[in-house]
Every structure is written in structure tokens, then in C-alpha cells.
């Protein structure tokens, strides 16, 4: 008797739930003639303006006016720009996801396909572990981002008795420093952040969840091929057939499973390719401006709270970029390993017809599954390394020689030295306690 099937839709249920919580999920469960449908539409318009347009736009206006004034400090400008880029990234990813919502629906349907369901304990353990990982990543990112924003928006301003707004804004027609507006704007800046954070966590981890599912399916396929002899024996005992017939049935199932995985990965590419390209481009800017902000903090020993916030902010975005590239790289590596596992099967004694089918399948699996950002750049560890190189983190590696290779699925020395060099350089700044007058203005 078969055991209960695993609900693979749990991979993406938290992300969809977060978007539904704030009424920005793409599908409205009401008819256009229903008043509730138009109420949802107006709610989304208002939330879109209040959460995604006004904060980003007002910060952008403030940054432009600050730079044009000629009195800007590089730390302040870098801090404002990285917040603008972060909120812009969330808005662009949400917009892209809404435009490709039919692809997301296809992914949700493919998660329910029969080829992705398995019932042996070992196979179910692989799938369950992947589901748990997907959900855990969502909560980790949401909690880490919430803690970081809490420090920036609440803790740091509170230490200064809220003398200034948590976020630098210019509302053009309103004086943000005027006492009659100040308290309301301060509350507004704190209250819009939860929705922004939940949206960021949802759109950031949705590709991770689907890629985790694809990786787990490749793991199950590899497991089935590695243990095909045991599966043949079990099938012979269950169906009372010959070994060749049992092998044919299992092999057919593996071929169908592989075709479903290819279709699923292609749908991931179509659904999230634009988002991944936006992430690669804007994350480079965010990491660069955050690093500049961190290295230009005035008297860092006296501003440890701000130092911790900026370090956490930088770490979160480096980790996000790495996880994107790591999952994409893992899919490629595991898909290439499938052909090796097939060739290792006991195929010598098989009938000629099965041998021909096996050779065709080996040839098909030799083409790797590659997820690309807008079909231009592969999402891989090599891309992650090159992104760090663009940021010129090698300059902060304290004279160590650079090694641009990544061996297997782990870090090689270049990435580790670059990131370690960043924090090493920052420790030097902490120890020297740079005075404020030594920090040049942006035009100096």
C-alpha cells in the first residue's frame, strides 16, 4: 500500500501567504461585478503608492538635491542610494512577478504532477528535507532583514531621541522637519517597512524554493538510478515479471521524471529569469554603496550600532546573491552527473532495444540544465565570483594573491580572501578611529 504523497506546494506556500496577507497576491477570488473585486483593486493601488512609490521617490529626490547642493558626504549619499536601490529591487521583482504570474501558476501546477511524487522512505526523506529547507530559508531571511531594519529604523534613531527621521526623505511640498508633520512621517516610515520586508522575503525566496524543489527531484532521480538494481528486484517481486520488463518500467519512469524536471527548470527560467537579472545588476550597486558607506563611517568606535547595522546589511545581500548562484550552480552540476550515473547502471546484459534507449537517454542528459539571468548570464558560482570581482573586493584582500577559480561547489581562496579582506580592512579603520574631518565630502 502506497504511503501518503508529499505536498510539494509547501515549497512556495509561505511566499504566497505573505503576498496574500498584504493583499498584493496577483489573483483576486471575486468576479469583476462584485464590489469586493474593485475594493481589492483600490486597496492595491493605495498600498502600491504608499509603500512602493512614495518612500523610494522621496528618497531619490532627497539624494538628488543633496548631491546638487555640493555639500554631501560620501557616507550619507551611499547610505541613501543603497536604500533606494534595495526598495527599487523589491518593486521591480514584484512587478516582474506580476507580469509573469501565469508562469508562477504553471510552477504551482507542476509541483502537483505525478512524476514528482515518490513513496519509498528514502525518496520521501529527500523531498521532505527540501521542503523544510525552503521554508526555513524564508523565515531566516525574514527574521534577519526584520532585525536589521529594526536597528536602522527604530534603535539608531531612538538612541538620538528621534531628532531626525529614520529615512532621509524630501516630499517637495512638505517640510519633513516641521514639527506638525515630523511625528506622522516618523510613524509612517516605521509602519510601511513590515510590508516592504515581507514582500522582499517573498520575492527573494520564491526562486530559491523552486530551485530547491528542482534540486531535490534531481537527487531522487540520481538515487533511483544508483539503486536501480534494488528497484528492479522489488518490482519483480511485486509484479511477478522478468528483470528486463522490470528494468524497462523503471527506466521509463526515470525518463519521464527527467523530462518533467527539464520542463520544471525551463518554467523556473521563464518565471524568474528577469528577476535574477535585476538582482545581479542592482545587487552589485547595493553591495558597492553599502561597502562605501561602511568604510566611510565617521568615528566607528563611537557609532557601533550603525557599524553593526551596515555590516549586517552587507552580509545579507552577499548571502542572498550567493544563494541564488549556489542553487543555480547545483542544478547544473547535478544535471550533468545524471549521465554518469546512467552509464554506471548494469546495462551490458540488457536487450539491444533497451541498450539503444539507454544510449539515447545518456546523450540527452549530457546537456546540462542551466538557469540564466534573462538568458544572458548563467546563475552560477562563477557568476558570483565575477560579481565580487566587479566590486573590486580584491583591493581589500590585504595584498593576498587572487585566485579566480571555484572548485566543486565550495569557495576557493579568492572569494574567502576578498570577503575576509573587507572585514580586515574595516578592523583597521575601527582601530584607527577615523576623525570626522578626515572623511572627505563627495566632491572633494
TrEMBL record:
GO terms for cellular component: plasma membrane. It comes from the Eukaryota. It is found in: Cell membrane. One of its GO terms (biological process) is signal transduction. It is a multi-pass membrane protein. InterPro entries: 7tm6_olfct_rcpt. The chain crosses the membrane at residues 42-65, 77-95, 137-160, 180-203, 276-295, 307-327. It holds the Pfam family 7tm_6. Keywords: Cell membrane, Membrane, Olfaction, Receptor, Sensory transduction, Transducer, Transmembrane, Transmembrane helix. One of its GO terms (molecular function) is odorant binding. Its main location: membrane. Belongs to the insect chemoreceptor superfamily. Heteromeric odorant receptor channel (TC 1.A.69) family. PANTHER family: ODORANT RECEPTOR (PTHR21137), ODORANT RECEPTOR 19A-RELATED (PTHR21137:SF35). This is Odorant receptor.
Amino acid at each position: 500500500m502506497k504511503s501518503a504523497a508529499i505536498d510539494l506546494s509547501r515549497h512556495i506556500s509561505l511566499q504566497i501567504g505573505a503576498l496574500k496577507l498584504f493583499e498584493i497576491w496577483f489573483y483576486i477570488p471575486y468576479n469583476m461585478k462584485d464590489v469586493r473585486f474593485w475594493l481589492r483593486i483600490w486597496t492595491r493601488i493605495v498600498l502600491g503608492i504608499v509603500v512602493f512609490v512614495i518612500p523610494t521617490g522621496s528618497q531619490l529626490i532627497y539624494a538628488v538635491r543633496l548631491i546638487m547642493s555640493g555639500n554631501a558626504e560620501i557616507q550619507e549619499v551611499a547610505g541613501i542610494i543603497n536604500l533606494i536601490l534595495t526598495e527599487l529591487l523589491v518593486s521591480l521583482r514584484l512587478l516582474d512577478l506580476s507580469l509573469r504570474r501565469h508562469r508562477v501558476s504553471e510552477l504551482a501546477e507542476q509541483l502537483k504532477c505525478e512524476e514528482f511524487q515518490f513513496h519509498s522512505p528514502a525518496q520521501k526523506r529527500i523531498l521532505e528535507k527540501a521542503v523544510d529547507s525552503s521554508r526555513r530559508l524564508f523565515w531566516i531571511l525574514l527574521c534577519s532583514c526584520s532585525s536589521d531594519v529594526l536597528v536602522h529604523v527604530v534603535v539608531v534613531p531612538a538612541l538620538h531621541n528621534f531628532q531626525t527621521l529614520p529615512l532621509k526623505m524630501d516630499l517637495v511640498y512638505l517640510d519633513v522637519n516641521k514639527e506638525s508633520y515630523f511625528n506622522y512621517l516618523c510613524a509612517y516610515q516605521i509602519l510601511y517597512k513590515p510590508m516592504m520586508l515581507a514582500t522582499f522575503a517573498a520575492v527573494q525566496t520564491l526562486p530559491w524554493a523552486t530551485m530547491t524543489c528542482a534540486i531535490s527531484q534531481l537527487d531522487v532521480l540520481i538515487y533511483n538510478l544508483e539503486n536501480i538494481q534494488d528497484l528492479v528486484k522489488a518490482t519483480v517481486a511485486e509484479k511477478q515479471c522478468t528483470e528486463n520488463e522490470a528494468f524497462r518500467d523503471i527506466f521509463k519512469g526515470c525518463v519521464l521524471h527527467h523530462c518533467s524536471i527539464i520542463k520544471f527548470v525551463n518554467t523556473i527560467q521563464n518565471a524568474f529569469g528577469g528577476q535574477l537579472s535585476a538582482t545581479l545588476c542592482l545587487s552589485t550597486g547595493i553591495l558597492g554603496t553599502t561597502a562605501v558607506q561602511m568604510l566611510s563611517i565617521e568615528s566607528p568606535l563611537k557609532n557601533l550600532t550603525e557599524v553593526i547595522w551596515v555590516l549586517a546589511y552587507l552580509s545579507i545581500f552577499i548571502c542572498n546573491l550567493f544563494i541564488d548562484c549556489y542553487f543555480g550552480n547545483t542544478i547544473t552540476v547535478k544535471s550533468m552527473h545524471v549521465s554518469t550515473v546512467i552509464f554506471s547502471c548494469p546495462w551490458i546484459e540488457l536487450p539491444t532495444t533497451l541498450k539503444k534507449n539507454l544510449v539515447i537517454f545518456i546523450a540527452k542528459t549530457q546537456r546540462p540544465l542551466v538557469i540564466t539571468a534573462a538568458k544572458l548570464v548563467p546563475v552560477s558560482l562563477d557568476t558570483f565570483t565575477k560579481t565580487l570581482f566587479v566590486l573590486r573586493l580584491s583591493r581589500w584582500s590585504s595584498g593576498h594573491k587572487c585566485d579566480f577559480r571555484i572548485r566543486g561547489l565550495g569557495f576557493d581562496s579568492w572569494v574567502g580572501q576578498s570577503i575576509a579582506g573587507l572585514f580586515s580592512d574595516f578592523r583597521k579603520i575601527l582601530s584607527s578611529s577615523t576623525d570626522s574631518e578626515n572623511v572627505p565630502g563627495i566632491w572633494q
